[in-house]
Amino acid sequence: MKKEFFNKLRIGISMAVILSFVLPFVLSIPIHAEEEPEKIYYGLKNASAVLDNINFTDVRNSGTWAKEAIYKAAALDIVKGYGNRVFGRTNYVTKEEAIAIIYRVAGREKDAQLAAEALDIARDIEDKKTYAPSMWSDGYLRLAANEGLISREDLEDAFSAEQSELGTGAFLRRAPAQRQEVAYWISKVLGIEPVYGQQKIFNSFRDWSGADPLKIPYIEAVLVENIMNGEGNGYFRPTGFVTREQIAQIIINADKRILSLLGYEKRMGTVEDIRKEYDFTGNSHVYINTFHIRNSNGKLHKIVTESADNSRSGYKNEQGGAAIRSTDTDLIVYKDGWVGTSSLLKEGDRIEYITTADGTVRYVRVISGTSDTEYIVAKIKEVNPEISTIKAAVGFYLEYPDADMDSISFDFRNSSGAVDTKLVYSNIVKVYVEGKAADIKDITPGMDAILTVQDNIITVINTLDLRLREQGVVSGIVEDNNPHLGYITLYSEDGLRMEGSLNRIKTYNYSNPEEVTVYKNHIAAKLEDIEGGDSVYIKLDQNGAIEMISAVDNYIVKYGKVISVRSGLINVAYDDGTQQILNVDENIPIVRDKKLVDFDSLKDGDRVKLLLNITDKATTLKKLTIEGDEHFITNIYRGVVSSVDDISKKMVLQNLEVFNNGKWERTGQKGFTTLKMSEENKFVYNDNIVNVRQVKELLAGSSAYIAVEKDYGGSEKAVLVSVKNSKDSEAPVFSDSIISSTAGNKGEFTLAKEYLNISYGNGTIIIKDNRLVTASSINSEDRAYVVANRSYDDGKYYASVVKINEKTDSNFFTIYRGRIANINENSDFTLESYSELDGVNWKYYNTPRTFRITYDTRILDDEGVVGQRNFTDFGDSSYKNRTVYVLSNGADAVLISTAPYGDINAKGKIYEIVSENEGDSEAVEGQQEPQGFKLQNAKVYDSQLHMWIDSKELEITLLKNSIILKNNSIVKPSELKKGDSIRLIKKDGNRTGDAYIIFVD
């Protein structure tokens, strides 16, 4: 025992000796601490209350150009709303409002209130004002008179109790402010020196002579600083009035002056990281978010927001007993046309953030995301308005669109070696020349500019004065690159061949390919990455060998329609009338709704945008973007053509019927119906395309089949009108499978059950996946409704309409039901146990299941759509312990609904849509969605007998959180149609009730 003790003691001494040697070395190993931030800022107190006040109902869903300015001015407490979330953006600003706003942006609000108090003290008791805004307005007017903005006579007029009795020329405080007055007041209050050598107002505006001569130097001053501008048509309108949205924009245009007066600073940076932290140690549960911002100066800034759940504190409102709302310090964020809280911010967002002296962030604007927007400094070489392209010499890239150009450091790969690049500019491109709004025609060769590029499309052009330094390089377009044999050949600098000859091509050699520095699209690359069609510039050493080379993709954009899709190939008809077959390999990105999709998402008839690399040898597809549903076929009609007007692009039809689920049904429109025609509409008769004159003269009174799509306003317009030969007879509609089909624009297909050959041609309306397609899209085993006519001459059948039915997938979504255990905000949530829908039964699993919340996850509760930032498991509106339906795609939640629990299945055919819309028409903007529907031939599933029991008719009500599934998609109630066969889940077997989930067959 004693020996064992001494052995242990020796071991302990040995370990102590070892540690005495090792520990100093361990302690001396440097530990990399987290980067210290240069600045730490905090969110705005009671941000949610501020957001409620400024999220104006008349701004939020409007298309106003001043939306961003309105939100910014309101968030900075400069231009306020009327209350009750109304901004009154189109109302005129009164004179007293304009003066108050301008003094407020100069930080003079306190001065005005003191002046107002002094005025009110001097009044008799019966004349004292009890309405604070009116009293404060007096103070602003007193300041204006004291400082020469208005005269003493104007002030007397303004203080007159009977404003309506004042004569012509009097100063009416509640009269609309004139533009020249606003310009004059801004110049005076902000200390902008008047400009007496007028250039802009004399040279730019036709109506300058109508301005008050004394105010012209001040108007010139605000024009020079781009605080105010003309209408763009040569008029300034000095005596015109200013709306509230205009005053907001004017104030924001002056932010370089006003921010410092208010004690604010504007900063720019990129969100690098968002970190969450929870503190459950006190009575309140505190949730902290820390945003790591890489400022434009390269330093780290942090912005901290927090919210506290006070529901456990026991504190209540003393007047009603309700639990006190959570306190918060959050951010007011403007992003993509919407205003919200910090939940809108994502990693990679480039932001502008306005801070106060006490470290509060008052406002954040998301400029762009690093993943979707680039800012390129370039020299304009050519503008081609016919095809909307700009050819430019790319200099270098910026992080932000208004970076200080003096701070840019130049190096070879982003210097004036100047890669020639051609880009398409948007048809709504914003152009600024010397900071002033301009037109694309004002952009000329030789100008330097910052180009804002989104998805390879120029969206903003902002000219600047920049002298790119000469580097002594050669440039051109790659004809051939062969690093193994040590050479690269280029077209001449202008990138053109002369009459197809090669005499303008030059060859350059690699002295040692392994030592050549290579960049592709301004990223380090290999020589093998440079391909034919690239624009390049090359730096040569003193011996003329290649030392450095930089290349960029030289692509063009073309638009067209997919004629057919085959494995790895597409046949495209371009808008110029030409056709081409293109290879689509697995590395080519295919985009729809700004998301990458599979090749299988590409359908015949899709409108597409193609990014192409075109050389003399080949055309290579680099990117394919599928356009939206604006060209989907919404209906097929049958009716008698009464008249056609080519000038108004309208046709009048009689006895109109719509093709629905294989049947012709009356539209309910009595008499005549007017239908628009699209610009691309075609008339076909006897398989030949005919012009409008022939239709008017020869075919009026004939029956026709019409395929229609909807325009952006929701109105239908004809895209193909197939006029029926009056001698031919229409056969009953075939509902059958196609077992074979010939290729080409003309040919025939064979029906399976009927074993009948039916021909098709130019006059056949073929619809597949809601798109108007050609006959090459007809495949064996397609199921279709076929409207065929039988020729009077030879008795053969030809197709007038082929409606190919979508192949339904009953498992396109998995549907679960369960109670929410917890929610990780904007990340995921977990059901404590769940049931999975299998046919007409629910299978129960006594285990938790977690679903991801993606950007596309929709949430519905009893009142309709819920924002993801409100989907939380804390606070008064917590979703914890609530039972929900979850539609999932794998682990991703596609839709979450709080609809009540139901386990009764019913089915039937819709024969009436219950709607508040006029004439049961389909819901459009401004109208309500259908309230419900009625079913005929209804049946209810008996889970005990395992069979469907007749129930005659059912009357079903739709809830705001009802789930409707049709054509493998979640759809709106307005997409339910008479004649649809459906199955639904409801609470009980009664003949009336609410629908929780609806499946449209």
Regions with pLDDT < 50 over 5+ consecutive residues?
A: 1-32, 403-418, 466-472, 493-503, 918-926
| Outline type | globular
Distance between the termini: 85 Å
Mean of the pLDDT scores?
81
* Structural class label: mainly beta
Helix content: 10-25%
Work out the helix count. Answer: 14
> What does the largest sheet look like?
10 strands, mixed
Number of strands: 58
Portion in beta strands: 35-45%
Which value, in Å, is the CA radius of gyration? 35 Å
What report would you give on this structure?
- With 1001 residues, the chain is mostly beta strands.
- It is built from 14 helices and 58 strands.
Keywords:
1001 residues, seven-stranded mixed beta sheet, 14 helices, globular
Layout of secondary structure:
Elements: H1 2-28, E1 39-42, E2 44-45, H2 47-54, H3 57-60, H4 67-75, H5 95-105, H6 109-121, H7 132-146, H8 152-159, H9 179-190, H10 200-204, H11 216-224, H12 244-253, H13 255-261, E3 264-279, E4 285-295, E5 300-309, E6 328-330, E7 333-335, E8 338-340, E9 349-356, E10 361-369, E11 373-384, E12 389-398, E13 419-433, E14 436-438, E15 448-454, E16 457-464, E17 474-482, E18 487-490, E19 506-509, E20 517-520, E21 523-524, E22 535-540, E23 546-552, E24 556-566, E25 569-574, E26 579-583, E27 590-592, E28 595-596, E29 607-614, E30 619-626, E31 633-645, E32 650-660, E33 663-666, E34 672-685, E35 688-690, H14 692-699, E36 703-710, E37 716-723, E38 729-730, E39 734-741, E40 747-751, E41 757-760, E42 765-768, E43 771-773, E44 783-790, E45 797-804, E46 814-824, E47 828-838, E48 841-845, E49 849-861, E50 864-866, E51 883-889, E52 892-897, E53 904-914, E54 932-942, E55 947-966, E56 969-970, E57 981-986, E58 992-1000
Parallel strand pairs: 1-5, 7-10, 13-16, 20-23, 27-30, 34-37, 41-45, 42-45, 49-52, 55-58
Antiparallel strand pairs: 2-6, 3-4, 3-9, 4-5, 5-6, 7-8, 9-10, 11-12, 11-15, 12-13, 13-14, 15-16, 17-18, 17-22, 18-19, 20-21, 22-23, 24-25, 24-29, 25-26, 27-28, 29-30, 31-32, 31-36, 32-33, 32-34, 34-35, 36-37, 38-44, 39-40, 39-44, 40-41, 42-43, 44-45, 46-47, 46-51, 47-48, 47-49, 49-50, 51-52, ...
